[in-house]
Specification:
Length: 65
């Protein structure tokens, strides 16, 4: 599962709720989670990550195991 999707689900948010918190289109959240060809800016990605308060540090720790 995509790390962003895992964090979003862990926060108990739908894509629509996360998009609203980040101030972006829900389609952008979907694109980021799918990891496809990016049509989003770094600012949008940072807004999404900030909306779920995700630093990625826990993901790195999981991968080290």
């Amino acid at each position: 599962m995509n790390p962003l999707k895992r964090a979003r689900l862990g926060a108990g948010l739908t894509q629509l709720q996360l998009a609203a918190r980040a101030g972006i289109d829900p389609c952008t959240v979907s694109r980021i989670e799918r990891g496809g060809q990016p049509r989003y800016t770094r600012a949008k990605l940072e807004a999404v990550l900030g909306a779920i308060d995700w630093s990625g540090e826990s993901e790195g720790k999981k991968e080290e195991r």
